[in-house]
Amino acid sequence: MKRFHVHVGVTDIDKSIAFYSSLFDAEPAVVKPDYAKWLLDDPRINFAISMREDAAKGIEHLGMQVADRAELAEVYDRLTAADRPVLEEGATTCCYARSEKSWIADPDGVVWEAFLTEGDSTTYGGSPDLDRLVSANAASGACCSPQVAPAKSSCC
To answer: Domain span at residue 48?
Structure first.
């Protein structure tokens, strides 16, 4: 079963954990010094926050987390059908987890990821370089959020 994903950059991890724990009436499933994640069933969401010095604050990216490889293939087919550049990152470490993922940006530059979490990691991980994707809204240097190039106008 798929789970909607939202990742938000924050300035104070402790205050943000307290706020979102109150808002969701639940404690995070994962807490690290610079990261926290709630896996909620109502609403069904993977909501993550991180405190990164070089990342913008607010929504960094959106995504769709899947439960197995069949769902990942289904969502990947949807990405490719969207007729936008797709970056197949493949196996990666991101947000203290080992994942298989791909990235896409919508026509207005909102960055989305499709991913299958395959296990925990002791490291935060890095960010892919998605210079093929265009996004004015993406957070530069954010956790798992792609580094994207500004739009290049080739016509009027």
So the answer is: 3-149
